[in-house]
Write a structure and sequence with these properties.
Elements (H helix, E strand, L loop, with lengths): L2 H31 L4 H4 L13 H14 L23 H26 L8 H23 L7 H9 L2 H10 L4 H10 L5 H20 L1
Helix pairs in contact: 1-3, 1-4, 1-5, 4-5, 4-6, 4-9, 5-9
Length: about 220
């Protein structure tokens, strides 16, 4: 592994840990705003990545994927919430679920803004390292947000869809989707069925880049 490739792997891992940390912390923050202190009690209302790290999902699998040049797949420890404590019983769970992907889209835009200010960085300078990290943050946050919005449980999109369904449709969702969601996602990843995420993320990055260039 040459230095350039090693630096890219390190940047990918740092960007993923930052993205996952913001994702889970945003779930915790929205739950607290909704009146549930469970994530705070569990120590998850923090931007310290350590409480959010899952050794297998946050470190092993992403590092393996980054080193072999494949799909960078990872996850953090899920944030536990108690919806019974939510102030808004109708929309509370939806807002908590949506907070994670929303935070990643926002972080992607923030990284693009950073790239805009560092656009003059030269190879070999210290600034180019931060530029490359920001570049990874843009793409990883975009892909993570889009992936989590898929309407498949246990992803955030699955939770959102479940909360919006009628009682009858919820029972069918519980019977036909929830038990098989994780297996379906794994199968899609193994056969390359999620490769389109990169194209959707690219479309998002184009729009976000236009927004940033228009403002700055």
């Amino acid at each position: 592994m040459d230095f350039a490739y090693g630096a890219r792997v390190v940047n990918m891992m740092i960007a993923l840990i930052i993205a996952l940390t913001f994702h889970e912390a945003s779930h915790a923050l929205m739950a607290r705003i909704q009146g549930d202190r469970t994530p705070q009690i569990d120590g998850r209302l923090t931007l310290n990545p350590i409480p959010h790290i899952d050794p297998i999902g946050t470190l092993f699998f992403p590092l393996l994927g980054a080193m072999v040049g494949g799909f960078l797949f990872g996850w953090a420890k899920p944030v536990s919430v108690d919806p019974r404590n939510f102030r808004d019983q109708k929309w509370g769970q939806v807002m908590v679920a949506a907070a994670g992907p929303a935070s990643n889209l926002i972080l992607s835009i923030v990284a693009l803004i950073g790239m805009q200010f560092m656009s003059g960085a030269q190879d070999g300078s210290v600034m180019i390292g931060f530029y490359r990290l920001a570049e990874q943050l843009v793409w990883i946050n975009a892909i993570l947000a889009i992936f989590n919005l898929l309407p498949v449980y246990p992803l955030d999109g699955g939770t959102i869809v479940y909360e919006l369904l009628s009682p009858d449709m919820r029972r069918k969702y519980e019977e036909y989707v929830i038990p098989y969601g994780s297996f379906a996602l794994l199968a899609l990843m193994l056969v390359g069925g999620l490769s389109w995420l990169g194209y959707v993320a690219g479309f998002w990055v184009l729009i976000a880049r236009w927004m940033v260039s228009f403002v700055i």
